[in-house]
Specification:
The protein is an all-alpha fold. It has six helices and no strands. It has a domain of 115 residues.
């Protein structure tokens, strides 16, 4: 029996909260201000990378790759927003940001296959996230405001599912029974 805590809920909750907040911006409900960037750096980025490193020590390759990769995604996204404002790079073209989203969509689609043995909710998280990335790519490549709103709405669902699953696992591990079904 492992003496280590289960890092999966930390990764899922961190991903879920950050995804919900950014998705509310994508819908148009919130401006892209420092709260979103701070959440992306510290919760979506740092906390997920820490969860991924903890998954490494639990010999969970999928969790390690997923959490460290998506943690790095949040940090790179902040870089996309901030580096041009700091004068450290040129502003990204919509085509380049679209390609960035396509690459993350392909990665997510392939990671989706790794969820086959996990909870159905985990498959739903990766399935919706894959679609979110391609909607964000369409938003950038086709200048589609509708795609951004759809990505935002689906992102809120995706983040909500991740948050729910993370909390369900925390409560299950703490109480020894499935309080929230997953």
């Amino acid at each position: 029996m492992s003496t280590y805590a289960n890092p999966t809920p930390l990764g899922l909750i961190s991903f879920g909260l950050t995804t919900i907040l950014l998705s509310l911006h994508n819908i148009g409900f919130l401006p892209n201000e420092s709260s979103i960037m701070a959440m992306a750096i510290f919760v979506g980025g740092l906390a997920q990378i820490l969860a991924g490193l903890m998954e490494f020590f639990k010999a969970n390759t999928f969790g390690c790759v997923a959490f460290t990769s998506y943690g790095a995604f949040w940090w790179t996204l902040v870089g996309v927003w901030v580096l041009p404002k700091m004068g450290w790079s040129q502003t990204n073209s919509a085509d380049l940001v679209g390609a960035y989203m396509v690459l993350w969509g392909v990665f997510t689609f392939l990671m989706f296959f790794g969820t086959a043995k996990g909870p159905k909710l985990l498959r739903a998280v990766f399935g919706t996230l894959f679609i979110v990335f391609f909607l964000l790519a369409a938003h950038n490549l086709c200048e589609s405001a509708t795609a951004a709103v759809l990505a935002g709405a689906l992102g809120v669902l995706c983040g909500g599912l991740a948050f729910y699953l993370g909390m369900a696992i925390v409560l299950h591990d703490e109480l020894g029974k499935k309080l929230l079904p997953f």
